[in-house]
Write a structure and sequence with these properties.
Length: 423
């Protein structure tokens, strides 16, 4: 099959960037299909660390072409900054980074609207990355948005201005104080658009269909995670796109019968950044250890990530919604040293024991029920083969495989490209 998918199964930051980079050697094309610069995908190799926000994580492999699909939302200012950050890598952007004309643009006022909405919500805020994601997707589905293809029209500045003026009225509606200089924002946006226009815009669905006909191999890179999906996540504490497998079809224009492997990627524990329910969240020493050892700070916003044990109920749900065919377990090294490893295998839901992911997982309804497994002490970070893995980790892996019915084909034991064990 032509198109494989790689998706996060938790609340994002599972390590998608690292694994896409590792897998790129097997593919001709890497394509992002949803989300925008709310994503932060970290790649570490040869002593370099890179955080990509909109550019697909295949960009460091010279032979691969990277496509930003129609389902992505692009902030030209952030996009150019990402390109500048890659300047020392001698990337032939014109030929290896192609942008869908149908991708929507994040205007400066989308970001202001995001900030106004969050401010107005007060303590009930989503904990948005404030990159303008929600308002941009609202304009897309509301049929008011501005697309990359519009930048090829003579009157694109008029389209921009009409939308900006509409947004300013909406900002007034929120009635909150925001500090901004519109002239400066507009000038930065225009300068960034001029640079963006030096890149190649394509009809990406046509391009991908041609690639499929030519038997090229394609890996679709998800952003965020399944529990942040606008339909299947912990609504309203979600992002505004379909982060799950179906989002790859709409976000690239590929048909379901063209999808092959679905790589589901998860941390050996769980993290979440921003607001919203998190049944296995830890507020004790164990959670603090995970945060410290795992360096759990957001790649986009620098915010501290909340940490907790693996939630098998949520993981099985995510496997189901996505049709996962292979699991990749990340950050196994972070759990070295715990006496026991806990896994939530059921919820106590309104007094009853359930094993499915219910409509509402707010703490007043859901309490985790744990199974305990033996921990391991060994440092995994220097291990390079399955044979070296400690017995207790193998038991943990076998437990997860049995619960999900899906094989774990990659175990990641450190942030570097090389710290990856295939099974
Ligand atoms: P993404 O958004 O899914 O691409 O993930 P992020 O890059 O936001 O967050 C994952 C973080 O974990 C990054 O800092 C990675 O460098 C790091 N990381 C990835 N895999 C591993 C691993 O196996 N072990 C450790 N210790 N860190 C990892
Ligand atoms: P990657 O691709 C983790 C979270 C935000 C917030 C909610 C809505 O790096 O895994 P938004 O800005 O989309 O309106 O925020 O979603 N969020 C992420 N959390 N990783 C991400 O991306 C995220 N993108 C958004 O923290 O709770
Ligand atoms: Mg991230």
């Amino acid at each position: 099959m032509a198109v494989d998918l790689l998706l996060g199964l938790q609340w994002g930051d599972e390590g998608k960037g690292k694994i896409v980079d590792v897998l790129t050697q097997n593919y001709n094309l890497i394509s992002r299909f949803q989300g925008g610069p709310n994503a932060g995908h970290t790649l570490i190799f040869d002593g370099h660390k890179h955080v990509l926000h909109t550019i697909p994580s295949g960009i460091f492999h010279k032979e691969a072409v990277n496509v930003v699909g129609n389902g992505v939302v692009i902030d030209p200012v952030i996009f150019n900054k990402e390109i500048d950050d890659l300047s020392k890598f001698d990337v032939d952007f014109k030929n290896v980074l192609l942008i869908s004309r149908k991708a929507h643009l994040i205007l400066p006022t989308h970001r202001l609207l995001d900030a106004a909405s969050e401010k107005a919500k007060g303590k009930d805020k989503i904990g948005s990355t404030l990159k303008g994601i929600g308002p941009t997707y609202m304009d897309k589905t509301g049929r008011n948005g501005m697309r990359v293809g519009d930048l090829e029209l003579d009157n694109w500045k008029e389209i921009f201005e009409n939308l900006t003026q509409k947004h300013l009225k909406m900002i007034d509606f929120y009635g909150v104080e925001l500090d901004y200089n519109l002239d400066e924002l507009r000038a930065n946006f225009f300068a960034a658009v001029d640079k963006l226009k030096e890149l190649t815009f394509i009809d990406s669905e046509e391009y991908l269909h041609t690639a499929i006909k030519e038997n090229k191999t394609i890996l679709a890179e998800g952003a965020q995670g399944s529990l942040l999906d606008v339909d299947f996540g912990t609504y309203p504490f979600v992002t505004s796109s379909n982060t799950t497998a179906a989002g790859a079809c709409t976000g690239l224009g590929v048909a379901p019968n063209q999808i092959g492997e679905v790589f589901g990627i998860f941390k050996a524990y769980t993290t979440r950044v921003g607001s919203g329910p998190f049944p296995t969240e830890l507020f004790d020493e164990d959670g603090a250890t995970m945060a410290k050892v795992g360096h759990e700070f957001g790649a986009t916003t620098g915010r501290a990530r909340r940490c907790g044990w693996l939630d098998m109920v949520a993981l099985k749900y995510a496997c189901q919604v996505n049709g996962v065919t292979q699991l990749n377990m990340m950050k196994a090294d972070v759990l070295s040293g715990f006496e026991t490893i806990k896994v939530c295998t059921a919820y106590k839901y309104k007094g009853e024991v359930i094993e499915h992911f219910p409509y509402n997982i707010e703490p007043e309804n859901v309490q985790p029920i744990y199974t305990e497994l033996k921990g391991w002490k060994e440092d995994l970070t220097g291990m390079t083969s399955e044979a070296e893995l400690p017995a207790a980790l193998n038991d943990y892996i076998a437990f997860i495989e049995k619960e999900t019915g899906i094989k774990i084909t990659i175990v990641s034991v450190g942030p570097d490209r090389k710290q990856t064990i295939e099974r």
